[in-house]
């Protein structure tokens, strides 16, 4: 069953076409990776699929609901972890979860049990009563993923979930993503520009370049398409996205990255 | 019909969750509320005591300090509300707003909840002003209904000015510009109102401006409700009608602007 389908999905910002005629389908239970250099339009795709940004033209559905006409149904069945570390530092971990449990209409009698469950799953139970501003970057990320699981989402969107994390925390998040799919049956849609990570995690990847899909398939398929011995996903990426990677970043995405760095610094 | 009722209940519940969120934050870090309390102390104890001596301002059958106390409460509400919108700039920069917008929370509930949480913050200032007023001998009205009226007025006015503040925050988009505009706007609101002198002593053009200032109606209602011998110039009905109407218009604009913060 196709849980995400986009049909000529397009978004323009003035002259810039951040997402150009995107038509992809994601199967239920898949870990699907959207890869691309900075500024390729990955975040724009995620923002459209999570109903934050209306498409300029084309359409898409998530779990069978149209993202424009049934946006509130979409919101009910998805989880979303934005690119920036966005848990509220002035609240405790538990309070962050409590507020979102309420916003997602988790029934009152299930609330504390559900919160306890995600805290345990994310290994944060002992820290739940500390203010989040005293958490490490990796802990905040885990808390955010915990938060996005509260409503048992059918599709979980993770926008660059490992950005700004150290290698250990990065690996922990990767393991959690696989556990999430295995234990909860959620479909996972992840964006990243780290090829190794995508190779380890994803069942299928789409390489996005200048707003378009340049290649789509399982990491193994894409590697064998290049045909050389010892090809890495990174080679595939360079092959399809061209060599002038960094120069493609548009200002909007540049600013986001700057902000991420600032946030990462502030959070230590 | 039934589904409309269910969504109305859900809307109110979500609004209160947002208010709860802000109250929890306030409890963890009450520094701002304490700092904000300094200003009414200065106005009532320094400015108020001096002007009460001069008897330069005609305040009818009540003393100048009595006249001033509701005005200073209204001022505290204005100040604490108008800088409240700053938090959404912060939340947008951190991506917190994105998460709320991707959740099944009505946009109107996000806007109203955020604005009403200004009401919660403003009530802490009301407590400070009441204690001060008591200390300097203002003749207060302790009738429970009047107290309830004060609470409603304070929350309503704080919601109004918070919504105004949110609109500025969504429009200017950076903290630096927001601070600048906030500073520039609070003083005209305050001086072009009946907060520290009656409108009757103003030049005619300023009287017109003051009559169009929602703060004037807040002060008018507070003066009638807070004081033993307080009276309303425009009538409580008019005061509340103006405050409710302005709040409704501003919240509607906020609801429209809120989702654009994530694009």
Written overview of the protein:
The complex is a heterodimer of chains A (268) and B (263). Chain A is of the alpha/beta class and 268 residues long. Chain A has one domain (2-88, 154-266): P-loop containing nucleotide triphosphate hydrolases (Rossmann fold). Chain A is built from ten helices and eleven strands. Chain A has a six-stranded mixed beta sheet with strand order 7-8-9-4-10-11, sandwiched between helices. In chain A, strands 1, 2, 3, 5 and 6 form a five-stranded antiparallel beta sheet that branches. In chain A, helix 4 runs antiparallel to helix 5. Chain B has one domain. The model of chain B has no long low-confidence stretch (mean pLDDT 93). Chain B has 263 residues and is mostly helical. The chains are: A alpha/beta (268), B mainly alpha (263). Chain A binds chain B through residues 47, 50-53, 72, 75-76, 78, 80, 82-86, 88, 90-92, 95, 99-100, 102-105, 131, 147, 259, 263, and chain B through 10, 13-14, 17, 20-21, 24-25, 28-29, 93-96, 98-105, 259, 262-263.
